[in-house]
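Input record (one chain):
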Amino acid sequence: MIFTVTDAGVTAVFTPRGEIDSDSLLDLLSAAHTLPESVTGVTWDLREARFMDVAGLHLLVHQRSACREAGRILTVVGLVRTAATAAGTRVGAVSRGQVG
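The corresponding structure, as predicted from the sequence alone:
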């Protein structure tokens, strides 16, 4: 994961690479927890994340709450549609083998 604080210590940008899953979640949360108080904006750039499971959702929900509590602005960039979503497949239907 790449982590930078830019704009004179005002914006933190997290750029995780590879997978965001249960193996990487604690490291990501720990990195986000160590931000200096001067940071007023947090950006998660997910363009380099090739896979994200429910741990990624947990990360984003946690970051939303943490940023609210700290008075920070949260920005998420780089989210893309999965093949199933782009094809119009209902997420719940995939496990049942149905396409809708």
